[in-house]
Amino acid sequence: MSVVCYSDTKVIVAEGDTLLSALERADIAVPNSCRAGLCHSCLMVAHGGSVPAKAQQDLTPQQVAQNYFLACQCYPNEDMEVSLGGSDRRYEAVLIHKQPLNEGVLRVRLKTDMPWFAGQYTSVWKNAVDGRSFSIASLPEEGQIEFHIRRRPDGVISSWLEHELQEGDSCQLSEARGHCFYTRSSGDETMLLAGTGTGLAPLYGVARQALASDHHGDIHLYAASGSPDQLYLVDELAELAERYKNFHYHPVAKRAAEPHPRLHQGDLVEIVSRRHSNLKQHRVYLCGAPSMVKKLQKLSFLQGAAMTDILVDAFEAPA
Amino acid sequence: MSLYEKLGGDAAVDAAVDIFYRKVLLDERICQYFDGVDMAGQSQKQKAFLTMVLGGPNSYTGKDMREGHKHLTGLNDSHVDAVIELLGETLKELGVGDEDIAEVAGLANSVRDDVLNR
Questions:
Q1: A184: in domain
Q2: CA distance B9 to B55
Q3: Where does a domain end: A33, A68, A84?
């Protein structure tokens, strides 16, 4: 147990609890979004006590030197004195369009001045404190941010986006982050993209960015879901595959009532690692369920992809 | 000239880390300690370690090595031996001579007590 001093309030943090949860229970508002150490919304500064290494893992050396840390990754092991980091820059965005893509996924488009790369993620803020992170499916030259949002009736942000925020209304976005985007080297290497659920969003962005950048190596996109009706953008991706002969779309369903031409049935990890057994000189992008991402990251590496050529973005659809 | 420079510096160490890390993940004596860890982060740590034992620019401290391993239960000399053996195999694949490998193994051996927290 540690005692953390925030402004004039003393908060007790139990063993195994994060500082973020403890502060929330004490009704102290800390902006937060992914709660997984990725979005950096809950950046704080320590003025006393030592910061656990895990809470600074992904920060810059400059931030570490100034005692910045992430509250969601902070399991205090001694008493601390802290304040908000406050450097999370927000951008204004206007809702342009929203459309259900199927039962489970909502497409949302926003206009903003924020710079981004297709495949990065950002947080959408309903107010100063409540935000959620989503991956970006659109290209900067398209002029609009596109998200694929998991529709949840009880979702703090997803339900607000679907039912409350109207076209023309504005909201705020955080600076785009993450390394999961296309960079051109030779343009010849084979690209392997695999995602589950709305993990398709960043991959859809990365694949189209590669094609727009005249990538001429083969691009294999695997989009997986539980059953065939949970797949989305199936027609768009099939059309893309018809238009570009180096782009290959592979829908995958864990279970399917009946066999379907062009649909792979079974486990994504098993299918991808079997069909792409030699990944030397490949660029691999893995997005979606953490268990899938971890397994395929390891297999891709063992099957010859260089560690620096495997780009991952593991996330659970947040409540 | 350090072995680090002879091999080709930073980019060469990246290639060496990939070879070394694959061996580690497939080695039944030690792979249990690497399962489920953040791979990109682990790869960076191995790069720092390889840079150090190859005589490249590094900021190695025994404290990091101690902190980084003390939560691993059951870690003993046989695991350190396995790592040094795989390191030797990696360098052999990269065309490094026996004499240089022995020197690298010596440097790797010098952190044994830090790794085993004694």
A1: no
A2: 10
A3: A84
- A117-159, pLDDT tens digit by residue? 999 999 999 998 889 999 999 999 999 999 999 999 888 899 9
* Domain end marker among A107, A140, A174: A174
To probe the interface with A, which of B22, B25, B34, B39 has the most A CB atoms within 10 Å?
B39
Domain, as residue range, for A68: 2-84
Phi and psi of A26, rounded to 5°? -90, 15
pLDDT digits (tens, 9 = 90+) for A44-91: 999 889 999 889 987 887 788 788 999 999 999 999 999 988 756 789
Please indicate whether, in this complex, the C-beta atoms of A301 and B18 are within 8 angstroms of each other.
yes
CATH number at residue B90: 1.10.490.10
* Count of domains observed in chain A: 3
Q: What is the tally of structural domains in chain B?
A: 1
Q: Which two tokens stand for residue A240?
A: 């893309």
Q: Which of B22, B36, B41 sits opposite A301 (nearest CB)?
A: B22
Contact A307 B26 (CB under 8 A): no
Domain at A39, CATH number: 3.10.20.30
Q: CA of A213 to nearest chain B CA: how many angstroms apart? A: 26
Give the minimum alpha-carbon distance from A228 to chain B in angstroms, rounded to a whole number.
30
Task: For chain B, report the end-to-end CA distance as a whole number of angstroms.
Answer: 33
Judging contacts by C-beta atoms under 8 Å, the chain A residues touching residue B17 are 307
So what's the pLDDT on residue B36?
80
A302: closest CA of chain B, how far (Å): 6
The verdict on A95 and A121 lying in the same domain is yes
| Sheet with A131-135, side-by-side order of all strands | A131-135, A121-125, A170-174, A90-100, A105-112, A145-150
Instruction: Assign B7 a pLDDT band (cuts: 50, 70, 90).
Output: confident
What is the residue range of B90's domain?
A: 3-115
Residues 6+ positions from B61 with CB-CB distance below 8 Å: none
A30 with A111, same domain? no
Is B39's CB within 8 Å of A57's CB? no
Residues B19-35 have pLDDT tens digits of: 999 999 999 999 999 88
CATH number for the domain that contains residue A300: 3.40.50.80
How far apart are the two ends of chain A, measured CA to CA in Å?
28
Contacts of A312 in chain B (CB under 8 A): 40
> Do A152 and A266 share a domain, yes or no?
no
Comparing alpha-carbon positions, the chain A residue that sits nearest to B34 is A298
Rounded-to-integer distance, Cα B49 and Cα B64, Å? 11
Q: Which residues of B touch A301 (CB under 8 A)?
A: 18, 21-22, 25, 39
